[in-house]
Design goal:
By secondary structure, the chain is mainly β. It has three helices and 45 strands.
């Protein structure tokens, strides 16, 4: 039985364990790719990606991009885009309470305000996902995920200062097929973990097809509740997604997508780091003695509902293709988090967010074989939302909690036009030139205790970004590229402030050089190096009282580094992959940094200090991963054994480089067996096998320093059927 291999542009591999998985996916848009991969029994197959907004062989794309298919995501237990940390080098999936804060090559946002969009943009099937709180995206039925490292300010554009996450799901098929999977796992504190998924697709008429993807995921509380008993950290997720496709001919296609996502959880259960909390000053305090414990005044909440609708059309006009993509999102989010992370009532942070956004893109691109390939397009984005934010604190548990009750409102609109061309000057030598102009207007108002204090403050931001590049084919399966480009993140208002002034945009100038090579049929090796000039960083931190947040253009930065990735397939049955990333990220001219310095009696003193030359937060100097998969015919069926190791050097979470997650490694593995009929498989799997305590974020503030840990060791069984 041949195994199928799909390779990423930067060398990360996805394996499908059995030939029937290719058969099951034969109606997806990746059909031709999978067939190519099967043509040789030993060797690395090609994969087509859309990282540059056109379908290209990823080894020909002059961008550092990692494409990961659904099988690799499952084998490494990557169930959300945040956990891509385990398989993508240079990527850190950080969070603050319920806000997803991805970091690529040291570039990442820290804001939690509505409208404060991350500078690592997220797209699903070409639709921009603006709100950090809404981007707890479960990877239910995924064709692949592309992670683009480096600024993508031209063809994708919006707020892609440091990179981009592009999730591609399969279109419906005109052949009926389906998949069902169920997993059950066990963690500490006798907590069970359940995951049930189903995917169905098939024709309705000769020209209409539909699909349905459903997910139910539930984990019980693996965090020991030291106050009430039982567990915290539980989560329940329901995610249903469906597409309806109309395809009257090979030249015209319309796809309508709808999705509903519902999450109820207590995963925002922090615990003090090194007992650093103001609650330690008072009698009766209960402090955790190890990871995955919590002592909180109340049971926290982190609940959200999200609705998404998207419309895609594609019309092939012969030498050009007209594509349109529109999307709408509605988000309702509530969270309540203990501010001092103890059972002593010194502070909490309740907040409610209501956000709507919509976007529309029109793109015209060439589709012939001429030496000049081009695309032009226009983009419109509109957003609006309001919040209720009431961060309460008290100097002692004997005094009532008090703090500002803020009700900010924000709305805005953005227009952009973009164009990019690639010209083959001579055989094997390609020149790229692209540009994008963006104009954006934001309106902001703020109420304090129901009284209007900021009335319709308005700011407009205009920016032209560009990119130039050259790629040269050194040999038939080896090419080198060099690019230089710019990108920006729009200015934003601070929802937790009474100011009518927005912070300025942040900008980045980026140079990158890379080599992509398949020197032998069984080997792929890719290298990328880069240098960033990063200016006007929008940085957020807690204020001196610990009850609110400040947002400022606080620093410039210099970042340089590189990534190396390799894949080896020496035999039909053995696949190996490895990746390593180096990031040198330092602040420059950061003289007004908000510093938190531990007090002897618990909590932190808050002082402004000079953080110039300090390491940037959430930017480990070294990180990487290693994966292996081996298959063999055993017992009248096929057995597949796989493993994944991800590792990182120290990660800092404050400007003074005091609070950090030390270097760590996470190991996962699985063993699956499928009988000869190839429609069924059963397996044993495990994640965090060494039970490593890894902080996914650390939050310093006046009331103390707390954090959230990644999940502990989890062992389970899995069963899957395809039909």
């Amino acid at each position: 039985m041949a195994s199928t291999i799909l390779m990423s542009a930067s060398g990360l591999v996805s394996f499908s364990a059995m030939a029937q998985e290719t058969e099951a996916a034969s109606e997806q848009s990746s059909e031709s790719v999978e067939e190519e991969a099967q043509e040789t029994s030993v060797g690395i197959g090609d994969i087509i990606v859309t990282a540059t907004r056109r379908a290209e062989n990823l080894q020909d794309v002059p961008v550092a991009v990692t494409a990961v298919t659904g099988d690799t995501l499952a084998s490494a237990d990557v169930s959300t885009i945040r956990t891509l940390t385990q398989v993508v080098p240079g990527f850190v999936g950080s969070r603050n309470m319920g806000v997803f804060q991805p970091v690529v090559r040291g570039v990442g946002s820290t804001g939690i305000s509505i409208g404060d969009e991350p500078n690592i943009a997220t797209y699903i099937d070409g639709v921009y996902q603006p709100e950090s709180a809404a981007n707890w995206i479960d990877l239910v039925e995924v064709e692949r995920v592309e992670v683009l490292r480096g600024p993508q300010g031209i063809t994708f554009g919006r707020n892609a200062t440091g990179g981009l996450i592009n999730v591609i799901t399969p279109d419906p098929s005109f052949s009926f097929r389906g998949r069902g999977a169920f997993r059950i796992g066990r963690m500490r504190n006798d907590a069970n973990d359940y995951d049930a998924r189903i995917y169905l697709t098939g024709p309705i008429t000769d020209t209409v097809a539909a699909d349905f993807a459903g997910l139910y995921r539930k984990n019980e509380g693996y965090i020991e509740d030291l106050v009430r008993g039982g567990g915290l950290g539980d989560q329940q997720v329901i995610d249903v997604r469906s597409k309806l496709m109309y395809e009257p001919s090979s030249r015209f296609k319309v796809v309508v997508t709808g999705e509903y996502f519902d999450q109820d959880s207590t995963t925002n259960s922090p615990q003090p780091i090194d007992d650093n909390t103001a609650g330690r000053r008072f009698p009766g305090v209960i402090l955790p003695t190890g990871p995955w414990q919590a002592s909180l005044t109340d049971v926290p909440d982190l609940n959200l509902k999200r609705w998404n609708i998207a419309l895609h059309t594609s019309l092939d006009l012969g030498s050009v293709v007209l594509d349109t993509t529109g999307g709408w999102m509605n988000l309702r989010w509530f969270q309540n988090t203990d501010s001092d992370a103890t059972n002593i009532e010194l502070g909490n942070f309740p907040a409610t967010f209501n956000v709507e956004s919509g976007s529309q893109e029109i793109k015209l691109s060439s589709s012939n074989s001429s030496p000049f390939q081009w695309l032009v397009g226009g983009y419109f984005y509109q957003f609006g939302g309001n919040s209720y934010v009431a961060p309460f604190t008290a100097p002692s548990p004997d005094e009532p909690l008090r703090g500002p009750i803020l009700e900010p409102e924000l709305e805005g609109r953005s227009f952009a036009g973009f164009a990019e061309g690639v010209y083959e000057i001579q055989p094997g030598l390609f020149f790229t030139l692209g540009g994008r102009y963006t104009t954006e207007t934001r309106n902001f108002s703020q109420r304090l205790f129901g009284n209007l204090v900021v009335d319709d403050a308005e700011e407009t931001f205009n920016k032209f970004d560009y990119k130039v590049g050259v790629r040269y084919e050194l040999a038939p399966r080896t090419s080198a590229y060099a690019t230089y480009g710019t990108a920006f993140k729009s200015g934003v208002f601070n929802m937790a402030a009474l100011s009518d002034e927005a912070v300025d945009p942040e900008t980045i100038d980026a140079a990158e050089f890379g080599i992509k090579s398949d020197p032998f049929p069984w080997l792929r090796a890719n290298l990328a190096v880069y240098h960033y000039d990063y200016k006007g960083l929008q940085l957020q931190s807690k204020d001196s009282l610990g009850s609110s947040y400040i947002l400022q253009n606080a620093a410039n930065a210099k970042i340089y580094g590189g990534e190396f990735e390799a894949f080896v397939r020496p035999t039909d049955d053995l696949n190996l992959r490895a990746a390593v990333a180096y990031t040198h990220a330092r602040y420059e001219d950061f003289t007004n940094a908000q510093g938190f310095f531990p007090r002897d009696d618990g909590g932190n003193s808050v002082e402004t200090f000079d953080a110039s030359d300090n390491t940037m937060t959430r930017a480990p100097e070294w990180s990487g991963s290693f994966g292996a998969q081996w298959g063999s015919d055993v017992g009248g069926g096929r057995m597949t054994v796989s493993g994944n190791l991800s590792w990182s050097s120290r990660v800092y979470y404050d400007f003074a480089n005091i609070f950090s997650q030390p270097s760590y490694a996470l190991i996962s593995g699985s063993i699956y067996w499928s009988p000869d009929h190839e429609r069924f498989k059963i397996g044993l799997w495990g994640t965090n096998l060494t039970n490593e305590s890894v902080l996914q974020t650390i939050r310093p503030g006046a009331l103390g320093t707390d954090g959230f840990y990644e999940q502990p060791r989890k062992i389970g069984l899995s069963i899957e059927t395809r039909f």
